[in-house]
Design goal:
alpha/beta, 2 domains, five-stranded mixed sheet, 8 helices, 36% helix, globular
Length: 244
């Protein structure tokens, strides 16, 4: 074949070959934003490669044996590895003096409130973050950096609320599972059951929820003390905190 007949296309210098590190980071509010996989960005490239390989191996096992639970367990395992504090890392938000204190009365006599960082609210009482009406989950994920800089907004939720009236939106985690079963992150029904059994003395009339992906300094220094005063005004003895 002559040179004139050679149809080989030369490399395009503008074509970018994605590195493994870039691929892993793309799940962290990037081009492939998938909050189930954002933990990959917390791993160095070698660990990310091992993690992806382990997940693919487990998928092979599921295809061969149908044991989906094995895949769930492996997924949990790799997420725990990714979020485990690195050796020598400093804690930015450490609370060495609290928040633990002895209860003032037995649990069976205590009025218990629920506070979660899950992003729940009641239909018709949307907190409308940044003034946006009916913000979608996709929009919340796209504006995660705005949430992280803003003070959190507390939503009040009656503890006799029907599940059908609950809504959830949070830019920092995948809410699909919680939307299917709100008790996963907002266990009002479980607490009602404990009150009926006498395990807790009483469930407070209102639960509270906010988007935990917020300004942590404002939360610690200004907002949390205000919320604590609110709960004291409602004669709450104990608070169950559910982080997401």
């Amino acid at each position: 074949m002559s040179d004139q007949d050679d149809t080989t296309v030369p490399d395009d210098p503008t074509t970018h070959v994605e590195t493994l590190e870039e691929f892993a980071n793309s799940f962290f509010y990037g081009s492939r934003s998938n909050l189930n996989l954002k933990f990959l960005a917390s791993l160095d490239p070698s660990d990310a490669a091992d993690t992806i390989g382990a997940l693919l191996d487990t998928i092979d096992d599921v295809l061969d044996h149908g044991d989906v639970r094995a895949l769930v367990d492996r997924f949990i395992e790799v997420q725990q590895q990714a979020y485990r504090p690195r050796a020598g890392a400093t804690e930015r938000f450490a609370y060495p003096t609290g928040p633990f204190s002895l209860p003032s009365k037995p649990l069976s006599e205590s009025r218990v409130a629920l506070v979660t960082s899950s992003g729940h609210f009641v239909a018709g009482d949307d907190p409308q973050p940044f003034g946006v009406t009916d913000m979608t989950q996709t929009e919340a994920e796209a504006r995660i950096s705005d949430f992280l800089r803003a003070a959190p907004t507390l939503s009040s939720i009656p503890t006799d609320v029907a599940a059908a009236d609950l809504r959830v939106r949070h830019g920092g985690y995948p809410v699909a599972g919680v939307a299917d079963d709100h008790q996963v992150a907002l266990p009002i029904g479980h607490l009602r059951h404990l009150a009926e059994q006498g395990r807790i003395g009483e469930l407070a009339d209102r639960a509270y929820s906010f988007v935990g992906a917020a300004s942590q300094l404002r939360l610690r220094d200004r907002v949390a003390p205000e919320w604590a005063d609110l709960l004291r005004s409602e004669q709450v003895d104990l608070v169950l905190l559910v982080p997401v």
